[in-house]
Amino acid sequence: MNRPPFQQLLDAHGADLHRFCLAQTGPHHGPDCFQDAVLAALRAYPELTDSRNLRGWLFTIAHHKVLDHHRATARRPAPVPEVPERASSDGPPLAHELWAAVGRLPEKQRGAIALRYLGDLPYAEIGAVLGCSDAAARQNVRAGLAALRQEAPAR
Amino acid sequence: MTSSLDDALRGAPTDPAADLAVALARADAEGLVDVAYSSTDSPIGPLLVAVTPAGLVRLAFEREDDDGVLQELADRIGPRVLERPAGLDEVRRELDEYFEGRRDHFELPLDWRLSSGFRRTVLETLHAAVDYGHTVSYLELATMVGNPKASRAVGTAMATNPIPIVVPCHRVLRTGGRLGGYGGGLPAKAALLELEARDQPLF
User: Fold this and answer.
1) Which residues of B touch A23 (CB under 8 A)?
2) Are residues B129 and B161 in the same domain?
3) Domain A6-151 in CATH: superfamily?
4) Would you kindly state where each structural domain of chain A is located, as residue ranges?
5) Of A22, A39, A88, the CB nearest to B14
6) Residue A142: its pLDDT value, please?
7) B27: distance to nearest CA of chain A, Å?
8) Active site residue B82
9) Is the residue at B3 inside a domain?
């Protein structure tokens, strides 16, 4: 079984993985979430037996780190506001606002939209990550988009 | 459909470099890196250098395909092969000093695990016994390892040397002084011999 050097995974998917974590957990927690995902992938990589879909594997790990983060936040007695403290210059404000809105969607819709638009994964893989059928994955994306449009009807 | 919404979703910002650096520093601290590598410039062209926690494990010339070299490291040592320039400062410093003529032996720890059996014996003997500025023939080296009939196998050991320059296979010549072969190409072999001959005559 030939696993490529881990650096190849980082070169090919690292930026997308980072975007995926930051968009869903915000500029404050996003870096930790991303780092935890990279570390978890490094720990697991030597034991990985199926290297056919490394991108899907990485996004599955990152998705779980995002879920961990959201569950920890939900348990916290005084939740930290999702909005970034500093009006960030590292991206169009539209994307920040929009992803803050994605963060308020139900868990499956949020995950499905992030995996679809930032992970660029096919619906079958999104279903595999979320533990549902590809039809259900597609439905979650659709429902999430409808909710986002409702929130900002201008788009 | 609403392509503007699609584009905005895809337009989430990212700047992974700093966060990745923190993640990889944590990976170093946890011992999660099997092989750290980097490229370094030299007078005989870019060199790829790779270290494990045990020491320098691989040095490759530009003419060897980097992707192939890295895949081999992943297959034979471990798949967590990462570009970590900071972890290779010591190797690069010694190589720079060598190429500037300020260093006649390397102090780096070596990880020999890519060589085994007879080839490893030959390379270890070469490393220990043939000093800067000196050369031996394939036959002489075969004799040094106690097997004068094995000069062809010695040639194979040289051709498969995973740590050239530091394990000085460039100091092994044909009987009579002709260059023989070299993984980095004969001009590189000639340049290394010339560098080492600056202070002391070859013959």
Assistant:
1) 12
2) yes
3) PhyR, sigma-like (SL) domain (1.20.140.160)
4) 6-151
5) A22
6) 97
7) 6
8) no
9) no
Task: State which of B46, B71, B99 marks the end of a domain.
Answer: B99
Instruction: Give the angle subtended at the CA of B31 by the CAs of B26 and B34, to the nearest 5°.
Output: 115
Residues B82 and B124 both lie in one domain: no
Nearest to A19 among B14, B20, B32 (CB): B14
Token representation of residue A72: 């920890």
Average pLDDT, chain A: 87
Largest CA distance in chain A: 51
- Assess whether B95 and B143 both reside in one domain: no
Give me the residues paired with residue A33 across strands. none
- Chain B residues lying within 8 Å of A95, measured CB to CB: 8-9, 11-13
CATH number at B35 reads: 3.30.160.70
Q: Is A155's pLDDT higher than 70?
A: no
Q: What is the pLDDT of residues B65-113, one digit of tens each?
A: 999 999 999 999 999 999 998 889 999 999 999 999 999 999 999 999 9
pLDDT higher than 70, residue A85: no
Distance of CA A10 to the CA centre of its chain: 16
pLDDT tens, position by position, A106-141: 999 999 999 999 999 999 999 999 999 999 999 999
Assigned domain for B47 exists:
yes
Nearest-neighbour CA in chain B from A84: distance (Å): 13
Residues in chain A with CB shorter than 8 Å from the CB of B33 are: 42
Domain count for chain B, please give it.
2
Tell me how far apart the alpha carbons of residues B177 and B139 are, in angstroms, rounded to a whole number.
Answer: 12
State the Cα–Cα distance between residues A19 and B16, nearest whole angstrom: 8
pLDDT digits (tens, 9 = 90+) for B135-193: 999 999 999 999 999 999 999 999 999 999 999 999 999 988 889 889 899 999 999 99
Instruction: Check residue A84 and give its pLDDT.
Output: 46
Determine whether the interchain pair A91/B12 forms a contact, defined as Cβ–Cβ distance below 8 Å.
yes
Query: In terms of residue numbers, what domain contains B40?
Result: 21-99
Q: Is the pLDDT of residue B44 over 80?
A: yes
What phi and psi, each to the nearest 5 degrees, are found at residue B40? -135, 145
